[in-house]
Design goal:
The complex is a heterodimer. Chain A starts with 5 loop residues before the first helix and ends with a strand. Helices cover about 25% and strands about 30% of the residues of chain A. Chain A has helices at about 5-20, 65-75, 110-120, 140-145, 170-175, 205-215, and strands spanning about 35-40, 45-50, 50-55, 95-105, 125-130, 135-140, 145-150, 160, 165-170, 185-195, 225-230, 235-240. Chain A is built from six helices and twelve strands. Chain B is of the alpha/beta class. The longest helix of chain B is centred in the middle third of the chain and has 22 residues, at about 425-445. Classes of the chains: A alpha+beta, B alpha/beta.
């Protein structure tokens, strides 16, 4: 599902809800839509273990039952982790921060650590991104609450393929013809906590800033996953 | 030994291309079987992009029919966009199936479904990416069997050199027959090698093996003869006709895409075949006779299909859905059953004379008002008589009046340009018709904001129709008429702004004409165009007329024929047509008589509909041992039994 866009995901849920036989409410008017709303979707190309959506149902159902039925109806690659009943709905404003894991294949940890240090010492890190509203400028540094290099051991990492089987990052590296014996070895895993700013700063914006101040470019695209979404707590991001 | 998924090599490429999710698979209702637990493996290929290929009914049906069999595996593959094609070549990633990302070269059979001739170059791309030799003659043991089907396969001669086998007509029983022969051949140690298998297919009389026929030519370029070049091969090959469609209620649970596709609904074929006899229509001619599904079967399929897919729209498909003998009951009962569940019902374009108020009301009941489309095809009554589309201006006005007064604001009208005997005045008559439609609509609805869209394209004469001998109208003539029509519509002060105008240029139609009525010499043209970069020829962003003209010049320079010879030349009765050895059941004499009676200067004669009037002996039923299968059964649908788990919404929006 990493490559599904927000609209693709919305379609998957609309159909999944119907297959599951959930009594979803619809909007009024000539073209009624099922009342499913999303809070802060992940961009296309990014996987996530922490998305939120709300379903408006016309009759009360057991949360556990909703979870089971929806999960059974959804395709591989989308799972419902938890369902809670909430009369108030889910405004996006309650989600103020996200924790991300970013895997950079083909980048050496020797290059990564100093780059991260340098980045964190900056006052600001302006980056640009082309959106459908035009070129947006933002300060990547202001959104970063924390940024750490976690580990550079290749063997301890696994990426999940779309069919559910586990393929190792090693396989990805060998496919990209990047050899660990190249001197620039292995790959780098970083974790970062980003505030939800406006305009939103994404992990790839942080990578853009990093590669601007160092030699951190890679021939293979980075693999990004949102781990948690919620509010900033003392030890990191706390899910709702 | 199990075959490995190519996904690990594919995944790093996906962030670099557009719409990557179409290649990822894992869709609901996708079937993946263990490779080693099956002994006959099919890759079903639709030679266009995923967004077009996934909703295709033909592939959806065969996918289920095959996967329901023990020991048989069927997966799907589609054409990859040029951005991924390039990366696949650079990174050594072969053509793969979307279900389990297996390389298609590892399968026993690749079944290719051609709805249109413009997919031919995409076939070559897929074979090339799969590492399979493009020419049938170059393939060896270990290469899959490449089998073509679909409507365009009724004249497969332009791609005969690239296909190992061709199936004409309905595929359900044909694929099971082929599967059993492949299974037996493999089990017996592949006797006779590849040719041995192909001979056993040819011996059934209903699978065409192009390599087993030789084509010879006369000095002036016409075909002299098409004949078998070995014993055990029939002189002519027949199409397959599935009788009793109620016994084959597929697809039951079609694949549900994650990506956006061109149709997003559960589709039921309410009948196959057509008896109206429109002279230009290949689909109507080659799918005879009519075989309906009963209202009970349709109701059951709709209930099961909605439950299995979660789609909120249902399409009732056929060549002319309003002709179904029980269409009013079907529409009323389905609308009743699904009232309040936000399930939309749609019919594809209906015949003007079969549409009625009941149908209009039922279709709009569940709130969603899908657009209404009608296809008069000819602008003047004279023109419509030539093509045997017996729709009077009165019929059309009455029908659109019904539509507009039932609340529709938009009506689309399809026309063709370049029909046999056409003059400028016939095309300009379309403008008059459109204006009358708007006038009638404004009066019927009491509003001025009603609209009508005129959509028109160039006519391409097709094999196995009465017009198969016709000269295709040259693109310059077509383009000039389309320009005149556009000017006539725009210039009208009173109505111009209420009429939308969509048209297709003349040149792609000429290439379609070459590929539709071409013979084996056209294979060299396709190859040349493909080598020059031709891909996705059905897409205006990719189609290049100049490239095809150049390919014709290069490839046909050693022959006495050229692009015009294949397209704008009228054929004679005695000429051997490239598809004469392929039997659609239609009597050639009858087709010729119908052609002459259409273009006679005294005015074309009308052929009626054999569903309700006596047989006019087109030849299909006696030749094929088939019969028309229609209702009405008189049954009705019981909502309590039909309704899936979806509860009726109380108080929330449903209906109008």
């Amino acid at each position: 599902m990493r490559f599904a866009s927000h609209r693709d995901v919305a379609r998957v849920f609309e159909r999944g809800v119907r297959r599951a036989g959930l009594p979803i409410a619809h909007s009024a008017g000539f073209t009624p839509h099922p009342k499913i709303s999303y809070a802060g979707g992940a961009p296309t190309g990014v996987a996530s273990e922490a998305e939120y959506l709300s379903l408006a149902l016309t009759t009360r159902n057991e949360a556990a039952d909703v979870r089971e039925r929806l999960n059974a109806a959804l395709p591989d690659g989308i799972d419902v982790i938890a369902v809670t009943e909430d009369a108030g709905g889910l405004p996006a404003s309650r989600l103020t921060a996200s924790a991300w894991r970013v895997i950079l294949p083909g980048v050496s940890p020797e290059a990564a650590a100093p780059a991260v240090e340098k980045f964190l010492a900056l006052d600001q890190a302006p980056v640009e991104r082309l959106t459908n509203k035009g070129m947006r400028r933002m300060d990547a540094r202001a959104a970063v609450v924390s940024l750490t290099v976690v580990t550079s051991a290749v063997s301890s990492l696994n990426a999940v393929s779309p069919t559910g089987t586990v393929s190792s990052v090693e396989a990805m590296l060998s496919a990209a013809a990047v050899s660990p014996a190249d001197g620039a070895s292995g790959c780098v895993v970083m974790e970062m906590v980003l505030r939800h700013t406006v305009p939103a700063v994404r992990p790839d914006d942080v990578l853009t800033a990093l590669s601007g101040i160092s030699d951190l470019a890679s021939s293979v695209p980075a693999v990004m996953t949102r781990l948690t979404q919620g509010v900033l707590g003392e030890t990191g991001v706390v899910a709702l | 030994m199990p075959v490995e998924s190519v996904y690990p090599k594919l995944e790093p490429l996906l962030p670099l291309i557009r719409k990557p999710v179409q290649y990822v698979g894992g869709e609901v209702n996708s079937t993946v079987k263990e490779w080693d637990e099956t002994d006959v493996r099919w890759a079903l290929f639709y030679p266009d992009a995923y967004e077009v290929g996934l909703p295709n009914q033909g592939i959806a049906i065969l996918y289920e029919v095959l996967n329901e069999q023990d020991g048989v595996l069927a997966e799907r593959t589609y054409s990859v966009w040029p951005d991924l094609e390039q990366l696949m070549r650079e990174n050594d990633v072969p053509q793969f199936t979307v279900d389990a990302h297996r390389p298609v070269g590892a399968f026993d059979v690749i079944g290719v479904s051609f709805s249109t001739e413009l997919g031919y170059t995409n076939l070559l791309t897929a074979l090339d990416l799969a590492g399979i030799p493009l020419l049938s003659a170059d393939r060896a043991e270990g290469h899959p069997l490449i089998i073509g089907g679909g409507h365009a396969a009724f004249n497969p001669e332009p791609i005969a050199d690239f296909l190992d086998a061709v199936v004409l007509g309905d595929g359900e029983e044909a694929v099971l027959l082929i599967t059993s022969l492949v299974r037996a051949w493999k089990r017996d140690g592949e006797p006779g090698g590849r040719d041995g298998l192909l001979l056993s297919l040819a011996a059934t009389g209903s699978v065409y093996i192009p390599r087993f026929y030789d084509v010879s030519y006369l000095p002036d370029g016409r075909i002299a003869r098409v004949a078998p070049n070995r014993p055990g091969v029939p002189a002519s090959v027949s199409k397959h006709t599935l009788l009793d469609l109620d016994a084959w209620p597929y697809p039951k649970a079609p694949v549900v895409p994650v990506a956006e596709t061109v149709h997003e609904r559960y589709s039921v074929e309410i009948f196959r075949g057509c008896t109206r006899g429109c002279r230009f229509c290949q689909a109507g001619m080659i799918t005879r006779p009519v075989r309906e599904r009963s209202i009970t079967t349709v109701g059951g399929m709709v209930a099961g299909g909605i439950k299995a897919t979660g789609f909120s729209e249902v399409g009732l498909l056929s060549l002319s859905s309003a002709d179904h003998s029980e269409i009013n009951s079907i529409a009323v009962d389905l609308a009743d059953c699904y009232e309040g569940t936000n399930t939309g019902l749609s019919l594809p374009s209906t015949r003007v004379d079969a549409f009625n108020v009941t149908l209009a009301d039922e279709l709009s009941r569940n709130g969603r008002r899908s657009g209404l489309t009608f296809a008069p095809e000819g602008g003047s009554e004279r023109m419509r008589a030539v093509i045997n589309k017996m729709v009077t201006e009165e019929d059309l006005i009455r029908t659109v009046t019904t539509a507009y007064s039932s609340g529709w604001r938009q009506v689309k009208l399809y026309f063709m340009c370049g029909l046999p005997t056409e003059e400028d005045s016939d095309v300009l008559a379309i403008a008059d018709l459109a204006k009358k439609v708007i006038a009638a609509g404004r009066e019927a609805s009491g509003r001025r904001d009603i609209r009508c869209t005129v959509s028109i394209g160039g006519f391409v004469p097709k094999p196995h129709t009465p017009f198969q001998w016709a000269a295709q109208c040259p693109p310059e003539v077509v383009d000039e008429r389309l320009r005149m029509l556009g000017a006539a519509l725009r210039s009208d002060r009173a109505y111009g702004k209420s009429i939308g105008y969509r048209y297709h240029e003349g040149t792609p139609a000429l290439v379609e004409g070459l590929l539709s009525r071409g013979d084996r010499r056209v294979a060299a043209v396709i190859m040349a165009a493909w080598r020059d970069g031709a891909r996705f020829d059905g897409w205006s962003e990719y189609f290049s007329f100049d490239r095809w003209v150049a390919a014709c010049e290069t490839a046909l320079s050693v022959t006495p024929v050229d692009l015009a010879w294949y397209t704008t030349r009228e054929r004679d009765y005695s000429e051997v047509l490239p598809w004469d050895h392929l039997d659609s059941g239609l009597d050639r004499e009858w087709l010729w008589q119908d052609w002459r009676s259409a273009v006679t200067p005294d005015g074309a004669s009308e052929v009626e509909d054999c569903r309700w009037t006596p047989c006019y002996e087109c030849g299909v039923c006696p030749a094929m041992g088939t019969e028309i299968q229609t209702g009405p059964t008189g049954e009705r649908l019981d909502g309590r039994r039909l309704l899936p788990v979806l509860p009726v919404l109380s108080g929330a929006a449903g209906g109008r």
